[in-house]
Amino acid sequence: MAVKKVALACSVCGSRNYMVTKKPTRTDRLQVKKYCKYCDSHTLHRETM
Fold first, then answer.
1. Closest CA to 24 of 11, 6, 46
2. What contacts 30, CB < 8 A, 6 or more positions away?
3. Distance (Å, whole) CA 18 – CA 13
4. Strand 16-21 to 5-10 pairing
5. What domain count does the chain have?
6. For 2-42, how does the pLDDT look when each residue is reduced to its tens digit (9 = 90+)?
């Protein structure tokens, strides 16, 4: 069985920089402050489908 992954997209520029595993227990979308190499700063990244 393959592991399902979702992307984390930058809320400023929209680039999808990170991939995380999808957990069935998580009901809300994941939001994490991560470094975006395109914005050159730490921004909020949200889980995309």
1. 6
2. 6, 8, 20, 46, 47
3. 14
4. antiparallel
5. 1
6. 889 999 999 999 999 999 999 889 889 999 999 999 999 99
Q: What is the domain-level CATH number for residue 39? A: 2.20.28.120
User: Dihedrals φ, ψ of 44, to 5°?
Assistant: -75, 125
Interval 34-47: pLDDT, tens: 999 999 999 999 99
Domain range for 35: 5-47
Long-range contacts from 16-21, C-beta under 8 angstroms, 24+ separation: 16/48, 17/45, 18/45, 20/47
What predicted TM-score, i.e. pTM, was given to this entire model? 0.82
